[in-house]
Write a structure and sequence with these properties.
2 helices, three-stranded antiparallel beta sheet, single chain, 8 strands, five-stranded antiparallel beta sheet, mainly beta, 152 residues, globular, 11% helix
Protein backbone atom coordinates (compact mmCIF):
# COMPACT_ATOMS: atom_id res chain seq x y z
CA UNK A 1 0.00 0.00 0.00
CA UNK A 2 1.22 3.48 -0.82
CA UNK A 3 -0.12 6.91 0.05
CA UNK A 4 0.35 9.17 -2.95
CA UNK A 5 0.91 12.89 -3.40
CA UNK A 6 -1.46 14.91 -5.54
CA UNK A 7 -0.91 14.64 -9.30
CA UNK A 8 2.48 16.30 -9.96
CA UNK A 9 1.35 17.68 -13.33
CA UNK A 10 -1.62 19.43 -11.69
CA UNK A 11 0.63 20.67 -8.87
CA UNK A 12 3.13 22.15 -11.37
CA UNK A 13 0.29 23.78 -13.33
CA UNK A 14 -1.06 25.44 -10.18
CA UNK A 15 2.39 26.62 -9.10
CA UNK A 16 2.90 28.22 -12.52
CA UNK A 17 -0.36 30.18 -12.19
CA UNK A 18 -2.74 27.75 -13.89
CA UNK A 19 -6.40 27.47 -12.94
CA UNK A 20 -7.78 25.26 -10.18
CA UNK A 21 -10.84 22.99 -10.46
CA UNK A 22 -13.08 26.09 -10.55
CA UNK A 23 -11.00 27.87 -13.19
CA UNK A 24 -9.52 30.31 -10.66
CA UNK A 25 -5.88 31.05 -9.80
CA UNK A 26 -4.71 29.79 -6.42
CA UNK A 27 -4.73 32.17 -3.47
CA UNK A 28 -1.53 32.72 -1.48
CA UNK A 29 -1.14 32.71 2.30
CA UNK A 30 1.61 32.36 4.91
CA UNK A 31 1.72 29.19 6.99
CA UNK A 32 1.70 29.13 10.77
CA UNK A 33 3.29 25.70 10.52
CA UNK A 34 0.16 23.86 11.65
CA UNK A 35 -3.02 22.92 9.85
CA UNK A 36 -1.62 23.51 6.35
CA UNK A 37 -0.90 20.05 4.94
CA UNK A 38 0.65 20.25 1.47
CA UNK A 39 -0.89 17.61 -0.80
CA UNK A 40 2.43 17.15 -2.60
CA UNK A 41 5.02 16.55 0.16
CA UNK A 42 2.25 15.45 2.58
CA UNK A 43 3.76 17.57 5.36
CA UNK A 44 2.55 20.81 6.93
CA UNK A 45 3.89 23.84 5.08
CA UNK A 46 6.69 25.19 7.35
CA UNK A 47 5.90 28.24 9.48
CA UNK A 48 6.56 31.49 7.65
CA UNK A 49 6.54 29.85 4.20
CA UNK A 50 3.96 30.78 1.60
CA UNK A 51 1.42 28.24 0.40
CA UNK A 52 -1.30 28.04 -2.21
CA UNK A 53 -5.00 27.54 -1.49
CA UNK A 54 -7.06 26.14 -4.34
CA UNK A 55 -10.04 24.06 -5.32
CA UNK A 56 -9.23 20.52 -6.39
CA UNK A 57 -11.20 17.53 -7.63
CA UNK A 58 -9.08 14.36 -7.42
CA UNK A 59 -11.26 12.54 -9.92
CA UNK A 60 -10.89 12.29 -13.71
CA UNK A 61 -14.46 13.33 -14.56
CA UNK A 62 -17.26 15.41 -13.10
CA UNK A 63 -19.87 13.05 -11.67
CA UNK A 64 -21.96 12.95 -8.48
CA UNK A 65 -19.22 11.35 -6.35
CA UNK A 66 -16.39 13.60 -7.60
CA UNK A 67 -16.05 15.85 -4.59
CA UNK A 68 -14.33 19.20 -5.05
CA UNK A 69 -12.85 21.13 -2.17
CA UNK A 70 -10.03 23.27 -0.87
CA UNK A 71 -6.47 21.95 -0.63
CA UNK A 72 -3.00 23.44 -0.02
CA UNK A 73 0.34 23.19 -1.80
CA UNK A 74 3.71 24.56 -0.73
CA UNK A 75 4.17 27.56 -3.04
CA UNK A 76 7.82 26.62 -3.59
CA UNK A 77 8.54 23.30 -5.22
CA UNK A 78 8.73 20.51 -2.67
CA UNK A 79 9.68 16.86 -2.95
CA UNK A 80 6.50 14.81 -3.49
CA UNK A 81 5.87 12.18 -0.81
CA UNK A 82 7.46 8.83 -1.58
CA UNK A 83 7.97 7.53 1.92
CA UNK A 84 6.95 4.30 3.52
CA UNK A 85 4.31 4.22 6.22
CA UNK A 86 1.88 6.93 7.20
CA UNK A 87 2.82 10.41 5.93
CA UNK A 88 3.12 13.33 8.37
CA UNK A 89 -0.06 14.94 6.95
CA UNK A 90 -2.02 12.03 8.46
CA UNK A 91 -0.54 12.37 11.94
CA UNK A 92 -1.60 15.86 13.05
CA UNK A 93 -5.36 15.49 13.60
CA UNK A 94 -7.04 13.23 16.15
CA UNK A 95 -8.99 11.46 13.39
CA UNK A 96 -9.53 11.19 9.63
CA UNK A 97 -12.28 10.22 7.22
CA UNK A 98 -11.51 7.22 5.01
CA UNK A 99 -13.66 6.16 2.05
CA UNK A 100 -13.16 3.41 -0.50
CA UNK A 101 -13.98 3.76 -4.19
CA UNK A 102 -14.44 1.29 -7.01
CA UNK A 103 -12.78 1.41 -10.41
CA UNK A 104 -15.70 3.57 -11.60
CA UNK A 105 -14.64 6.31 -9.12
CA UNK A 106 -17.83 5.84 -7.10
CA UNK A 107 -17.95 5.47 -3.32
CA UNK A 108 -18.48 1.91 -2.13
CA UNK A 109 -21.21 2.29 0.45
CA UNK A 110 -20.39 1.00 3.90
CA UNK A 111 -16.65 1.72 3.56
CA UNK A 112 -16.62 5.26 4.92
CA UNK A 113 -15.65 5.89 8.52
CA UNK A 114 -14.01 8.43 10.78
CA UNK A 115 -11.02 6.66 12.31
CA UNK A 116 -8.45 7.68 14.95
CA UNK A 117 -5.11 8.75 13.47
CA UNK A 118 -3.31 5.67 14.81
CA UNK A 119 -5.78 3.46 12.91
CA UNK A 120 -5.61 5.19 9.50
CA UNK A 121 -3.06 2.87 7.91
CA UNK A 122 -4.64 -0.41 9.09
CA UNK A 123 -8.13 0.84 8.15
CA UNK A 124 -6.91 1.80 4.66
CA UNK A 125 -5.15 -1.56 4.27
CA UNK A 126 -8.33 -3.40 5.30
CA UNK A 127 -10.36 -1.57 2.65
CA UNK A 128 -7.74 -2.17 -0.03
CA UNK A 129 -7.91 -5.92 0.72
CA UNK A 130 -11.46 -5.90 -0.67
CA UNK A 131 -11.34 -6.84 -4.39
CA UNK A 132 -14.04 -4.24 -5.18
CA UNK A 133 -11.81 -1.39 -3.98
CA UNK A 134 -9.64 0.48 -6.50
CA UNK A 135 -8.42 3.17 -4.08
CA UNK A 136 -9.10 4.79 -0.73
CA UNK A 137 -9.32 8.53 -0.17
CA UNK A 138 -8.32 10.02 3.15
CA UNK A 139 -9.90 13.34 4.11
CA UNK A 140 -10.00 15.65 7.07
CA UNK A 141 -12.68 14.43 9.46
CA UNK A 142 -13.09 18.01 10.71
CA UNK A 143 -13.22 19.92 7.40
CA UNK A 144 -13.75 17.16 4.78
CA UNK A 145 -10.77 18.39 2.72
CA UNK A 146 -9.07 15.80 0.53
CA UNK A 147 -5.63 14.86 1.94
CA UNK A 148 -4.30 11.89 -0.01
CA UNK A 149 -5.22 8.72 -1.87
CA UNK A 150 -3.96 5.20 -1.20
CA UNK A 151 -3.55 2.34 -3.67
CA UNK A 152 -2.48 -1.27 -3.36
Amino acid sequence: MQFEPYDPDFTAKIRSGGPDAYGQPAERAISTGQGTPCRSCLKDVPAGESFLILAARPFPDIQPYAETGPIFFCEKSCKPWQGEGTPPALQTSPDYLVKAYGADNRILYGTGAVVPKQDVTPEVEARLADARVAFVDIRSARNNCFLTRAWS
